[in-house]
Design a protein that fits this description.
Strand content: 15-25%
Distance between the termini: 192 Å
Largest sheet: 7 strands, antiparallel
Number of helices: 10
Radius of gyration: 47 Å
Order of helices and strands: HHHHHHHHHHEEEEEEEEEEEE
Shape: elongated
Number of strands: 12
Helix content: 25-40%
Length: 400
């Protein structure tokens, strides 16, 4: 009996040699055909990895704000409300500023302002209104004001001197606007008289209103000592003159002092025999002080000792030696063509009249000289109308 043949053993897979060379560890692994990296990819893979840069200060701080700003500008432009474009207010006109200022003043006060300013030729209603504006802004609520009382700022001593019951209601108080307005007018006019006297005597020079305001904010003594508007009073004077422009409507119907024209027919006789002029009225540089300012009169050159005569009938209100004008005479002629007129005669070598003496046209007053600040013999002749210097030439007749 034949024995069955043994089953063939399964084939064993071929074993690799134990010492075969392995692939380098850094060789790229090939998984599927066609996925092999290109040369450029292999080079890129060998490059060191780049570090990510963190955002800098500009990015963290400035960029967000810039973004918001740009966005806001775009929004406002689109909305039509960009500041400085359509919303910008137009410049205020003088008329608008005047309307705002006068609106502060009760209409019932205006006649009192006119009456108070009418007490002297220097003041104007607009000036009084400006002074009150500067102190209180026309706030009639006395409880809201500190320090001196009322709209004009009178303390107890000042009110005792200047205050009165102006409106006739039985009481006199700085807290009553009408009483305060009238008291301020009395005070200013008294100061105007003081500085007018100082200017007449030649101890001070300058615009009469400016000097009055300076005396108000400082004192007449300080103005006299300075011989002009003191430096410490300049700011106040300029402030009041600026504010007064806002109240100029209150001056309507009132003659502005110093602004009237000379009479159409000459009413003054020539004060000296010579009619030649070496220095006319107007702005000039002083030949000795070299200060440029108003030459307040006309200079008539003449020989030493030439007679100087009164230009019109009047009363001598000043006759004395002064520092700047030398021997100086002032004659008050009273009212001429609705204005208070005075004439002055300066740098005289001798004076033949005294204070208080009545003179007529042609009365000998003195002799031509060169006293005071003078470069040679001449007559410095002035015309003062309502406290303000005028050009004398239109006032003089031909001849004398």
């Amino acid at each position: 009996m034949n024995e069955p043949s043994p089953a063939p053993e399964p084939e064993q897979p071929a074993r690799e040699p134990e010492h075969s060379v392995s692939e380098p560890e850094d060789a790229p692994t090939v998984s599927e055909p066609g996925d092999a990296p290109t040369v450029s990819e292999q080079e890129e893979a060998r490059k060191p990895a780049r570090k990510r840069r963190r955002p800098g200060p500009f990015t963290l701080l400035a960029l967000p704000g810039l973004t918001v700003l740009v966005g806001s500008v775009v929004f406002l432009t689109v909305a039509g409300k960009l500041p400085g474009a359509e919303d910008e207010e137009p410049a205020r006109t003088p008329a608008a500023e005047e309307a705002d200022a006068t609106a502060l003043v009760d209409d019932s006060f205006v006649p009192w302002l006119k009456q108070a300013a009418g007490a002297c030729t220097v003041l104007r209603p607009s000036v009084l209104a400006a002074q009150i504006d500067a102190y209180s802004g026309w706030n009639t609520d006395s409880a809201a004001l500190t320090g001196p009382s009322g709209i004009a700022g009178f303390d107890e001593a000042g009110w005792k001197k200047w205050g009165k019951d102006a409106d006739g209601n039985g009481t006199s108080s700085p807290k009553e606007p009408v009483d305060a307005i009238m008291a301020l007018g009395r005070q200013d006019c008294a100061l105007a008289d003081e500085v007018t006297e100082a200017r007449t005597s030649g101890t001070v020079n300058g615009d009469l209103l400016d000097l009055t305001l300076a005396a108000y904010t400082r004192s007449t003594a300080e103005v006299t000592k300075a011989g002009k508007v003191p430096a410490k009073a300049t700011a106040y004077v300029k402030k009041i003159e600026k504010l007064a422009k806002h109240y100029k409507t209150f001056d309507k119907g009132d003659a502005s002092p110093g602004q009237g024209a000379a009479p159409t027919s000459a009413v003054l006789a020539w004060p000296s025999a010579t009619h030649s002029v070496s220095s006319p009225y107007g702005t000039r540089e002083h030949p000795l002080t070299h200060v440029t300012k108003l030459h307040t009169g006309v200079d008539f050159p003449a020989a030493q000792g030439t007679p100087v005569t009164a230009a019109r009938e009047g009363t001598v209100v000043f006759a004395a030696l002064t520092k700047a004008y030398g021997n100086r005479i002032v004659v008050d002629h009273g009212t001429i063509s609705g204005a208070h007129v005075q004439t002055t005669y300066s740098h005289l070598s001798a004076m033949h009249v005294t204070n208080g003496q009545h003179v007529t046209t042609g009365t000998l007053l003195g002799d031509v000289g060169s006293t005071g600040l003078s470069t040679g013999p001449h007559l410095h002749f002035e015309v003062i109308r309502d406290g303000y210097y005028n050009d004398p030439m239109p006032w003089l007749g031909v001849g004398g």
